[in-house]
Design brief:
Four copies of one chain form a homotetramer.
Chain A: E1 15-18, H1 22-33, E2 38-41, H2 45-49, E3 55-56, H3 60-64, E4 69-72, H4 77-85, H5 90-93, E5 99-102, H6 108-120, E6 124-127, E7 130-131, H7 133-139, E8 142-147, H8 150-160, E9 164-171, H9 175-203, H10 208-215, H11 223-226, H12 250-267, H13 272-286, H14 297-302
Parallel strand pairs in A: 1-2, 1-4, 2-3, 4-5, 5-6, 8-9
Antiparallel strand pairs in A: 7-8
Helix pairs in contact in A: 1-7, 9-12, 9-13, 12-13
GO molecular function (chains A, B, C, D): 3-hydroxyisobutyrate dehydrogenase activity; NAD binding; NADP binding
Domain 3-hydroxyisobutyrate dehydrogenase-like NAD-binding (chains A, B, C, D): 174-300
InterPro entries (chains A, B, C, D): 3-OH-isobutyrate_DH-rel_CS, 6-PGluconate_DH-like_C_sf, 6PGD_dom2, 6PGDH_NADP-bd, HIBADH, HIBADH-like_NADP-bd, HIBADH-related, NAD(P)-bd_dom_sf
């Protein structure tokens, strides 16, 4: 983890934030509440107006003008690329030495391409995807995984720590994405494994709370069992206890698995469980579970009552 | 977890222990070092003679005679059944109100059958499989998962705590096995997922220690990443850092997965990742990895250099 | 394939047939229509009475008495064993040199055990499971896969050919079951693969008939594409064109896969696709597709409209 | 299938063929032996010079100049795109109304993009991937799956039939690729299933020839069992009987599965067996089997002796 550095009280007016979806809006709220003034843009005007205390702009370019830090938090790599490099892209609109921080989850190779182009145009670029989900964004406890130059990561770290509690510098450009995908790959697999196990135990007559308490002090324990248990009623305040609403949608974990498979393919790394897990989530999507939290695998395996 | 009960200082001479393999021998050592006198039997005479301070017997029956607690720690359910009920089985040789504690990992249904027959013959029976492996057996830190009557579990608990640190009462006969299989099912899956992820990350240029440290504070963390990391050199004192020697053999996790699949089948619980994980371990066995620690999946996915 | 032998016009009254389910009833109809007189038994009285021209008996023993050939066509190995060897089992009730022919699909090891016990009791035993399904049973075009003594197989062959068109002698006792399971393992996998492919093609805009016609002259062709196509409307007179009614039920193919996995496990043969296919069919069962034809995987992958 | 049309005896000098690898060289040989004069180009000069009776050119542009039909048979979509549209691409170098026929296996979406660009530049474009492999290319018995305009397909059909025996018009641009990927997806899965089954049967004591002969008249039959059997010695003249040399390389089927998964992903079609099959082939690649025929899965499952 990076060492703490003293914060330089820079003028907060030079932060731009593009993309105020479920994650971005919550991240901006934390920036604002901790003293940053932020210029924002979202293609959906209501999204931008949902956050208090920001300056709403009419284009990414307008938001980014004069900013030192330009954050993007967007659905996929094509949109990030278009926002930065498109006909009305930010890089064409501003000329100063801005630092771009892309917190979207995109292909590592796309991050590397963007970093290269940014550099050729006199800009600096970090990939800085997050883990922690909507809950972590709301609470300001996200983990940032950062790829790029060390000094750039140091410079933006105080701002990141207003939105999260951990900042990991992973290596060169793209490594933030790689770390994110590696983590979510395990998560996707472990959640299904946990669902299979708990479903089996319950169908064989075990109480899911008791079974969970055993697993959580044994070799089967993981974040999926001890923090985000998939069985309704075992833990409060997790999506499984709220009809699998909110949380980390099936379509989002499936998206990350597709990215992981492409990255693994480029490196010749086999992903047998990753691949079949991906297809299981795709099967859930085909059967109407797209917007449910990914722990809904439990309900799917449980079957009709 | 069971409440602590006062220990009744019973005569230590009435403990019998059948089966002194990798696990059993270490469990008996802890019993002896904590004041129990134990009569032992193993089909391999050298196995029994490897433990100091015990009385070596020539048959299970001889060991069990006069014992209050008769432990079995044997390779599979058929051997347990034969030991208890065969022509020279213990149940035919002794007449007192002994309590049988089977710590082998066997099919839940076999435990239930044994429990039923024991009861019909005036004996009491607990299934009490363990987690923690050879390391936990050596250190006396095993977890016991116990199925059967509560009062029987209470009675033997002080003895169990000389070999382990956790005792979970799971429910009726067989539920100890169910809990064990549920735990190991997750373990088997999560380990492969962790290997896939770390192999991918390393092949994409990440340092495995750094990647592990990120995962361990993120949603991908599990016992397989934070306690038993599969990448050589990331953690000391785990099999992966010792050429995958010792530890939990591929053939043993494969055995547990076969038991889990049978149990799941009987309950109509699908195990997609469990089943494919089982076959991946079987593929490793076919390719010569049978006796290696199960984290050797990492080496297998990594491929030839 | 066995050479044709001349048929000895034995007295048809000495054929017994135990088990008149979907398959058995149709097989008996063919025996009767081709001149055999058959004594039958089924635990469900209506089942026996559904077939014309037979002698209905009150017990397996009554049916088997005086029979030269005793056929069993039963749901699983336990029932076969009980029918032959149980308290009221046939082998206890008759004393002549009957030839038992078990056409049930059961574990190869169970067949071997039954064959051994039969021999010890002075009887002869063949395992003779079939392929061809209800359609083949109705049409008298089943394939018999026979394990046991060559001379026994020759003796019963003329009778088998009244119910089927192919008789394969596979080897010693149990090899009929092995061949059956090997065949159905491929079938189970290939059907899912064909469903995945055709679903993908259709979703990408291809006409399923055209796509099928291409596959059927290419390297992807199989019985699942050219004879039993899973897409509604591509072929007439197959279950997929009749709402997946009739045919080979999901629960039956799942049963065969469980048997195949046990057999493979005993031989150390990995079944990665077999295992995951098994679990996919189990997932269908959990979601209400148990009684549909196994080609319904297509509908499942297609998802909700 | 397209109706036969009368062949118009066009001047054979206007055929160009770019890419003379294992497939392309054999296809050109057939064109030449059946009267076409062909101008060829390959980035590896020796490749071009291996074929007798052709005009070897120094660039794709030189080969394509004046050609009516310009064939490309190249390793992937990026190379096809570069060949047609790159700085020295053919479309910049020639101005007539050439018909491009791309027989490479590439992403359907890439074909659609190429088709669109070709049209915008006044050219016509067909995707026409083949099945049949090196053997089919050598024998002139390939199957062409053609996407694009019907009249263009008719125009080139007589030339295609000099290299193959079947020409299927599949639909609009890209549908040739879709049909190809659908076929190879089934092939990849069925081959593994067949290997699992035959390995299991052999390990259980069956003769592989006998087992194959049973499967080939039963519901498990497929091209993988009856034409390209994976067990050494069962069939002559297939790679499995020649140490898995030649044939369809593991790396090539893996490539096709990656393309299929991307296409399926775009359409929301789950590919559970396709995905795990892909990863099994990737595991073989990681373990040194990259250049062996894909039926080598049999040897891999068989394990060390």
């Amino acid at each position: 983890m990076l060492q703490e550095v003293s914060y330089d009280h820079r003028n907060a007016s030079n932060v731009a934030f593009i993309g105020l979806g479920q994650m971005g809006a919550r991240m901006v709220k934390n920036l604002v509440s901790k003293g940053e003034k932020v210029k924002v843009f979202d293609v959906v005007p209501q999204a931008a107006s949902s956050v208090q205390g920001v300056t709403i702009c009419n284009s990414p370019e307008e938001a980014a003008k004069d900013a030192c830090f330009v954050f993007t938090m967007l659905p996929n790599g094509h949109i990030v690329k278009d926002t930065l490099l498109g006909d009305k892209g930010i890089m064409k609109g501003i000329s100063n030495n801005a630092l771009f921080i892309d917190s979207s989850t995109i292909e590592p190779q796309q991050s590397q391409e963007l970093g290269k182009i940014a550099k050729e145009n006199g800009f600096r670029f970090l990939d800085a995807p997050v883990s922690g989900g909507v809950t972590g964004a709301e609470a300001g406890t996200l983990t940032f995984m950062v790829g790029g130059e060390d000094k750039d990561a140091e410079e933006v770290k105080p701002v990141l720590l207003k939105m999260g509690k951990n900042v990991f510098k992973c290596g060169g450009t793209g490594t933030g994405q790689i770390a994110k995908l590696c983590n979510n790959l395990i998560l996707a697999i472990t959640m299904i494994g946990t669902c299979e196990s708990l479903n089996m135990g319950v169908k064989l007559g075990m109480d899911p709370k008791l079974l969970t308490s055993i697993i959580n002090v044994s070799t089967g324990r993981s974040w999926s069992s001890d923090t985000y248990n998939p069985v309704p009623g075992v833990m409060p305040n997790v999506p499984s206890s709220n009809q699998y609403k909110g949380g980390f949608g099936v379509s989002l974990i499936a998206k990350d698995l597709a990215l992981a498979e492409n990255a693994a393919l480029s490196a010749g790394a086999p992903l047998p469980l990753g691949a079949i897990s991906h297809q299981l989530y795709r099967t859930l999507i085909a059967n109407g579970y797209s917007d449910k939290d990914f722990a809904v695998v439990y309900e799917f395996l449980q079957g009709k009552k």
